[in-house]
From TrEMBL:
<keyword id="KW-0472">Membrane</keyword>
<protein>
    <submittedName>
        <fullName>Membrane protein</fullName>
    </submittedName>
</protein>
<feature type="transmembrane region" description="Helical">
    <location>
        <begin position="154"/>
        <end position="174"/>
    </location>
</feature>
<keyword id="KW-1003">Cell membrane</keyword>
<dbReference type="GO" id="GO:0005886">
    <property type="term" value="C:plasma membrane"/>
</dbReference>
<feature type="transmembrane region" description="Helical">
    <location>
        <begin position="121"/>
        <end position="148"/>
    </location>
</feature>
<feature type="transmembrane region" description="Helical">
    <location>
        <begin position="10"/>
        <end position="27"/>
    </location>
</feature>
<keyword id="KW-0812">Transmembrane</keyword>
<dbReference type="InterPro" id="IPR022791">
    <property type="entry name" value="L-PG_synthase/AglD"/>
</dbReference>
<keyword id="KW-1133">Transmembrane helix</keyword>
<dbReference type="Pfam" id="PF03706">
    <property type="entry name" value="LPG_synthase_TM"/>
</dbReference>
<feature type="transmembrane region" description="Helical">
    <location>
        <begin position="47"/>
        <end position="71"/>
    </location>
</feature>
<feature type="transmembrane region" description="Helical">
    <location>
        <begin position="313"/>
        <end position="334"/>
    </location>
</feature>
Length: 350
């Protein structure tokens, strides 16, 4: 019964719309920055604003290229415009809901399955792309710590970097050694079943069948480096969006040397990293409130005035959060809402 309701075209189309309306009403007190951002845009440097808008969407395109390359490595060939559309739409899911990344991952999984990607390939993409992206974010943060002496726990950053690097390498290694994984499964899973007092062979063949889907993956070192390069480009262009907003608000481009009431390139990178780390929990849609405060505090700490830092934060969030989210929902309702996107994300029982 519930499955039939969830599969209904009108439910699939109206459901997200109803959720959006509820969220706008619930968090209306957190949204004054939209009007403030529009007012500040009137006084901003037009070239800086245009550059920031362009960079915000180029960053999403770079993320989409990571998806396209990883899916292609698993035998699922998709055009760049389809992966770009999915990336922008899934970004809207991620930024619109508390805990949005989980909803975004489910939506991405459904669409990728409709493209013919296997369950293992979808999971492989999610883990590897997330690990590489986090690795680059931490590296940017570490550079800010060393060059600016920022008060961020360098050990926590280094531990995260080591963990994400190890995870990326593990997923890469697993895709090239399915036979070794099969031997481990045939040895360890029966022992685990016996410890759980279940038949020793339970789930073994199913797990082996899933593992052998790695045989269809062809991620060479060159392609892996290309994927990592696009992921780095996504982070750098996203950070450049904040840099362009600093130029748009202050009329001055941050350089390598500090100046009175101005920040530097490294200051912008540090503000970007701390904002992304603060927004990872996302207890409000898009981290509204939390992320803005972190950007302002960090920019003030690295040399900007409170007035300019507030203006930068508002304009940056208007472009990188509000604008991209609106475009993402337009793409979602035009391309995905009410249509079958693959398997149901959850098995609903009647």
């Amino acid at each position: 019964m519930l499955r039939r309701i969830a599969a209904n075209r009108w439910v699939r189309w109206l459901g997200p719309l109803v959720v959006l309306v509820i969220l706008i009403v619930a968090f209306r007190d957190q949204l004054p920055f939209l009007g403030d951002g529009v007012r500040r845009l009137r006084d901003a440097e037009p070239a800086g604003v245009l550059l920031a808008v362009t960079a915000a969407f180029l960053a999403l395109f770079a993320m989409a290229e990571v998806m396209r390359l990883l899916l292609d490595a698993g035998g699922t060939r998709v055009s760049p415009h389809r992966t770009t559309g999915l990336t922008i739409a899934s970004n809207a899911w991620s930024t619109s809901l508390p805990g949005g990344p989980a909803f975004s991952a489910v939506f991405t999984y459904q669409v990728q399955r409709s493209w013919g990607a296997s369950r293992l390939l979808c999971g492989w993409f999610l883990v590897l792309s997330s690990a590489v992206s986090t690795m680059w974010l931490v590296l940017i943060g570490v550079s800010g710590v060393f060059f600016l002496g920022a008060r961020v726990s360098v050990w926590s950053l280094l531990i995260t970097l080591a963990a994400m690097t190890a995870l990326s390498w593990t997923v890469y290694w697993a895709s090239h050694h399915p036979a070794q994984l099969e031997r481990w499964i045939r040895t360890l899973l029966p022992a685990l079943n016996r410890a759980r007092r279940r038949p020793s062979g339970e789930g073994v063949e199913s797990a082996v069948s899933q593992i052998h889907q790695f045989d269809t993956f062809h991620l060479s070192r060159g392609r892996f480096l290309t994927v990592a390069g696009w992921s780095l480009l996504n982070r750098l262009i996203d950070a450049f969006t904040l840099y362009a907003c600093v130029w748009a608000v202050t009329g001055t481009t941050p350089g390598l040397e500090s100046a009175p009431d101005q920040t530097t390139v490294m200051g912008v990178l540090l503000a970007y990293t701390t904002a992304k780390l603060a927004g990872s929990a996302q207890v409000t849609p898009g981290g509204v409130g939390t992320v803005d405060a972190v950007i302002i505090a960090t920019l003030v700490a690295v040399g900007m005035t409170a007035v300019d830092a507030t203006g930068v934060a508002v304009v940056y969030r208007l472009i990188s959060f509000a604008l991209t989210t609106i475009v993402g929902w337009v793409i979602y309702f035009l391309s995905y809402a009410g249509r079958e996107t693959g398997e149901p994300a959850l098995e609903l029982e009647s």
